[in-house]
């Protein structure tokens, strides 16, 4: 079951310092939707698909996608809610990080939703917060089409800054953070396409430490922070750390374990 909130109230979209995005209608039938989204997101007039450049939000009959028109051979990035994770036997670090009796999760850095959909499949009640309005709209649309099969989890998508929104949501056992940081390691692998685009949309992510402090004030049981394996802790030593080959999950206990 997937729950998408509906409200007649207008929502103030967060302003960010990232790259400007253009919008195109891939088909003539998508023009009305594209115009409505352009107005909602403040993207200006629709661009012609042949002259658009840079990051572009493509609106089609099948949904929404982001594409870098500076690289004409690049594929459009869409949200695939059906994509599953299959951790190896004994290597499900996230399950260990979640602990026992976890029923609800706030994913405070939802991005394109891979973690949020995974939590739902695990049977959790999930609130996914995303501050990039374009990404939040894409995530809401993907969530509306998402089928969790036999799982009992729910998904609620919120567009806003998590620092402000966490306290406004229903209390959760777990608050999950997967913040982005400037890549200072030239030897590190190139980020995946989704992360590259998200970084371009958000600009520099400089408030992750503050977000962790807010999360620790509101999480019912624990805060989980996903980090590169060799990166320093986000803000103080964690109580528990589950390390994998390339990432680790730092756990900050706040109440029940």
Structural overview:
The chain is of the alpha/beta class and 257 residues long. The protein has two domains: 22-68, no CATH class; 94-183 and 190-253, 3-Layer(aba) Sandwich (Rossmann fold), CATH 3.40.50. The protein is 25% helix and 21% strand. The chain contains seven helices and ten strands. It has helices at 31-41, 93-98, 114-121, 133-145, 162-165, 193-202, 208-218; strands at residues 22-25, 55-60, 63-68, 104-107, 125-130, 154-159, 174-177, 222-228, 240-243, 247-253. Strands 6-5-4-7-8-10-9 form a seven-stranded mixed beta sheet, with helices on both faces. The chain has a three-stranded mixed beta sheet with strand order 1-2-3, covered by helices on one side. Strand 9 (240-243) and strand 10 (247-253) form a beta hairpin. The longest helix has 13 residues, at 133-145.
Mean pLDDT: 85
- How many domains? The number is 2
CATH architecture label of the largest domain: 3-Layer(aba) Sandwich
CATH topology of the largest domain: Rossmann fold
Count of distinct strands: 10
**What do we call the CATH homologous superfamily of the largest domain?**
Vaccinia Virus protein VP39
What is the radius of gyration? 18 Å
**Main sheet properties:** 7 strands, mixed
Q: What are the segments in which pLDDT stays under 50 over at least 5 consecutive residues?
A: 1-15
Q: What amount of the residues lies in strands? A: 15-25%
Distance between the termini: 27 Å
Assigned CATH class of the largest domain: Alpha Beta
Overall shape: it is: elongated
Helix content: 10-25%
Class inferred from helices and paired strands: alpha/beta
């Amino acid at each position: 079951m997937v729950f998408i909130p509906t409200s007649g109230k207008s929502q103030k979209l967060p302003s960010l310092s990232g790259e400007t995005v253009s919008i195109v209608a891939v088909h003539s039938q998508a023009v009305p939707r594209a115009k409505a989204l352009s107005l909602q997101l403040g993207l200006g007039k629709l661009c012609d698909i042949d002259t658009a450049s840079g990051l572009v939000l493509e609106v089609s009959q099948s949904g929404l996608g982001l594409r870098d028109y500076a690289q004409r051979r690049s594929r459009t990035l869409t949200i695939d809610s059906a994509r599953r994770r299959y951790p190896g036997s004994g290597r499900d670090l996230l399950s260990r990080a979640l602990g026992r009796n976890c029923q609800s999760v706030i994913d405070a850095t939802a991005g394109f939703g891979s973690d949020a959909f995974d939590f739902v499949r695990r049977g959790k009640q999930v609130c996914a917060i995303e501050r990039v309005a374009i990404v939040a709209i894409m995530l809401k649309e993907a969530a509306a089409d998402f089928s969790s099969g036999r799982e009992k989890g729910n998904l609620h998508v919120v567009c806003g800054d998590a620092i402000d929104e966490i306290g406004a949501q229903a209390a959760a056992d777990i608050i999950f953070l997967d913040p982005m940081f400037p890549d200072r390691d030239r030897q590190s692998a190139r980020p995946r396409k989704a992360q590259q685009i998200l970084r371009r949309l958000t600009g520099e992510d400089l408030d992750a430490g503050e977000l962790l402090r807010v999360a620790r004030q509101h999480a019912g049981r624990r805060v989980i922070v996903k980090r590169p394996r060799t990166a320093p802790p986000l803000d103080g030593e964690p109580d528990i750390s589950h390390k994998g080959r390339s990432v680790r999950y730092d756990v900050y206990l706040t109440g029940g374990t």
